[in-house]
Amino acid sequence: MKLSVDLARCEGHGLCEEAAPELFRLDDEGDLVVLFDASAAVPAEHETDAASAARVCPIGALRVRSE
Fold this sequence. Notes:
The protein is α+β, with helices and mostly antiparallel strands and 67 residues long. It has a single domain (2-65), classed as 2-Layer Sandwich (Alpha-Beta Plaits). The protein is 22% helix and 21% strand. It has two helices and four strands; from the N terminus they run βαββαβ. Strand 2 and strand 3 (32-34) form a beta hairpin. The radius of gyration is 11 Å and the shape is globular.
C-alpha cells in the first residue's frame, strides 16, 4: 500500500498524527512531518494506521494508493 501526501494541501489539523503517530507528526510550526519514505510503500505493520490517517484527514491531504 502507498500513501500520497500532499504537504501543500495540509492545514495542520493533526488528526493524522493522532491516528498514526509512528508515521506522522506536526512540528513546532504546525507543519506535517512524514516519518517514513512517502515515495515507498507504507511499512506493512503500519498499513491499518496509515489508512485510518487518510480517512480522518478533513481536507484529503492523505490518500491511499494501490501499488
